Amino acid sequence: MSKLSGSLNKYNDIFWERISQNVYTSEKSLGLFRCIFGSLALVLYPPSFSWISQTPPAFFDPPIISIANLFSGFPYQAFAVIDLIVIISLILLTLGVKARFFGLLTVALIIFGQSFTYSFGKIDHSILFVSVIAIMSFSGWGTYYSLMPDSGKRLKSSSLHVSIVTVVLCLGMITAGSAKAYNWLDFDLSTSGILSWYYLAYFDIDRNLLLASHFIKLPMFLYEMMDYSAVIFELSAILAALYSRNSWLGWILLACLFHLSTALILNIPYGVHVYLYLLFIDWHSLGQSIKISFPLKTFSISIILIGLAHWYQRIFNEGSAVLFQPKSNSILAFELYLYVFLWSIMIVLFIWEIYNNTVNINIKQDCLLAEDIANGNN
After folding, report:
1. C-alpha–C-alpha distance, residues 131 and 136, integer Å
2. Distance between CA 297 and CA 302 in Å, rounded?
3. How far apart are alpha carbons 109 and 170 in whole angstroms?
4. How far apart (Å, rounded) are the C-alpha atoms in residues 167 and 153?
5. Is the pLDDT of residue 239 over 90?
6. Taking a C-beta distance cutoff of 8 angstroms, is the pair 100, 137 a contact?
7. 3-state SS of the chain: helix, strand, coil percent to 5?
8. Nearest-angstrom CA–CA distance, 346 and 260
9. What is the pLDDT of residues 95-131, one digit of tens each?
10. Model confidence pLDDT, tens digit, residues 203-222
11. Is residue 210 packed enough to be buried (19+ CB in 10 Å), middle (13-18) or exposed (0-12)?
12. Contact 357/246 with Cβ under 8 angstroms?
């Protein structure tokens, strides 16, 4: 038994060591990531619960395991206050004012608010957004580019927390890929998993923008190949993370292309993974390469103004998750064009990251070769 335990511990150590090596990010880069993460969250994805105040009490039907079950109905007066505190917490998290505390406060408030959102019967993908904040709150992302930095005494290695986020992402992909594998890998050209999504979106809810109307013209075998490719892609995440840094960055590049195609074809403006993938960009090296310094004071003022603008819209029941975009039927078109743009930028960023990592590998190999030659001459 002790032998088996020792073997498991050995393989566990190897697993986490490999992941850490391939997803390593410096604390300076994590500080910039926190600023970018918080900025995008405030501009595009600020959690909002005020709208629940307009729903009838009859819609209150939370799952069995839910914080909402501690209440007899919607606490209508609380949602506007939650929105205000969440926005303030996101502002302070972004500016690096005790990022650990305000990150965890943001997580707690979002979980509380979402427990009432899920009373309507649909559980969304927001767990990834919350997981990133919760895990990274214990890393060193609040150390650099912060107005009031976190104390580093109680923090463990930042690479450990980036590794945990990576494994959470991979597990999410495995669960999605496993479900698709069970239903889509049927080797039957008369059925298609991706077409089952497409028909529902195109004909039932009028998602017929961008390239949607052209997708139906493809030959049937291509749809089958797309089904298998999607399954392989999602199930291979953990293998890519274990193999090398470039394989992991290449997998994320494919993920960006996947999400871009989903927006173009299925008209699904899925953007929550934007916040997650940005963690794996070396922002410090990128800033040094293009010789841009970080204007912390100007950035701080901008973030505060964005947060106030969001809260102003919440008070008067205006606006949507996207800053200054009003609630209207055109919100889908706006979000589609927005996320097509964002995913295109992400593709460029990860092509640069792969190139930069390859150059660094070649430089290290040249240095090792020169060192070996020098030792040989001696």
Report:
1. 8
2. 9
3. 26
4. 25
5. yes
6. yes
7. 70, 0, 25
8. 10
9. 999 999 999 999 999 999 988 888 877 666 678 889 9
10. 888 888 888 888 888 888 89
11. middle
12. yes
